[in-house]
Write a structure and sequence with these properties.
Blueprint: E1 4-9, H1 13-25, E2 29-35, H2 39-48, E3 53-55, H3 58-62, E4 69-72, H4 79-88, E5 92-95, H5 103-116, E6 120-122, H6 130-141, E7 147-157, H7 175-191, E8 197-205, E9 211-220, E10 226-232, E11 234-245, E12 248-252, E13 266-270, E14 273-277, H8 284-298, H9 306-325, E15 329-330
Parallel strand pairs: 1-2, 1-4, 2-3, 4-5, 5-6, 7-10
Antiparallel strand pairs: 7-11, 8-9, 8-15, 9-10, 11-12, 12-13, 13-14
Length: about 325
């Protein structure tokens, strides 16, 4: 199999720390080129990450016929523009989460990729790790009974970094965009359905361009099931998910950020006691790249297609409206 030749649009920390190494460790992909808004930064990163080609503009990379797919780790407000331009250049797209600023933009991105007959994937890397298939299998087995609720938490404290793109309101900053999307997408994945309503209470910080630095919320699903969640960028680190059933629960201590060590195992608690479920030590970024690579080669649908990104943004739109307007928001 010839490997998928990836281009990276930008030198963001997440690209250097996780996604580029993941692609480089994958079976199906190779990072061929990286672009920045200036050639010096692109060359510095290409040397640091052992990438063959550096470009001083995103346009140059998209014009390279040797590039099959691009990863876009740019600030949220730039996702739509560069996804559409990449699609028009015939490149498959892996776009960092959240897919866009709102569901309308996400749909425009989806439609552009469909017109160009290229793949579009939102970079929720955790979903490609076998842990979530294992969790779903346990739920389907009936071991914890009927699911009654889920609780997810993803928080960290970075409030001192005043120039961070996460703290620019017009750029799509805020904790709901940055980390709240994880428990939201996880609940949709595990339950296999869309929520009917959202109620969110948030801390908006004037010191951080009035973005939500902390949010707590509830999403209402069918049959009285709910996701309660917390997300924050001005709170002690936490990264957990619990699924509560009528006969037991599943606790995932490291739900979204995987460190490839013993902390990444999860636990099932029932009347029979507490058992640890061992999880294979795998790079979820490499698994993500391989899923996309296999789909490009085989033509089979992605595990999570572009419509999922639109649906997740639809929920996020409701959450942001609820937080800003301090009211319960129903989703049509």
């Amino acid at each position: 199999m010839n490997k998928i030749r990836w281009g990276i649009l930008g030198c963001a920390s997440i690209a250097k720390r996780a996604v580029i190494p993941g692609i480089q460790q994958s079976e199906t992909g190779v990072v061929k080129a990286i672009a920045s808004r200036g050639i010096d930064k692109a060359k510095e990163t290409s040397t640091e990450m052992s990438i063959e080609t550096a470009y001083g503009s995103y346009e140059e990379l998209l014009a390279d016929p040797e590039i099959d797919a691009v990863y876009i780790p740019l600030p949220n407000h730039l996702h739509k523009e560069w996804t559409i331009r990449a699609a028009e250049a015939g490149k498959h797209v892996l776009c960092e989460k959240p897919a866009a600023i709102d569901a309308k933009q996400a749909k425009e991105m989806k439609d552009a990729c469909e017109r160009a007959k290229v793949l579009f994937a939102e970079a929720f890397m955790y979903r490609y790790h076998p842990r979530y298939t294992m969790i779903q299998d346990i739920i389907q087995s009936g071991e914890i009974g009927d699911v009654r609720s889920l609780h997810g938490t993803f928080m960290f404290n970075n409030e001192g970094d005043q120039n961070n793109v996460r703290y620019k309101k017009e750029w799509g900053g805020g904790s709901l965009y940055d980390v709240g999307v994880y428990p939201i997408s996880a609940a949709r994945l595990i339950l296999g359905q869309e929520p009917a309503a959202a109620s969110i209470h948030a801390l908006f910080s004037p010191e951080h361009d009035d973005v939500d630095m902390m949010a707590s919320g509830i999403l209402e699903f069918d049959n009285g099931v709910a996701l309660t969640f917390q997300c924050g960028m001005w709170a002690s680190f936490q990264n957990e998910l619990s699924v509560v059933g009528t006969k037991g629960r599943i606790d995932v201590p490291s739900a979204f950020v995987v460190h490839q060590d013993e902390q990444d195992h999860f636990f099932v608690l029932t009347e029979n006691g507490r058992r640890e479920v061992e999880v294979p030590r795998l790079n979820q970024y490499a698994l993500q790249a391989d899923a996309i690579g296999r789909s490009i080669y085989s033509g089979e649908p992605l595990p999570y297609d572009a419509s999922d990104a639109v649906l997740n943004m639809r929920v996020l739109d409701a959450c942001l409206t609820s937080a800003r307007e301090q009211r319960r928001v129903e989703l049509e």
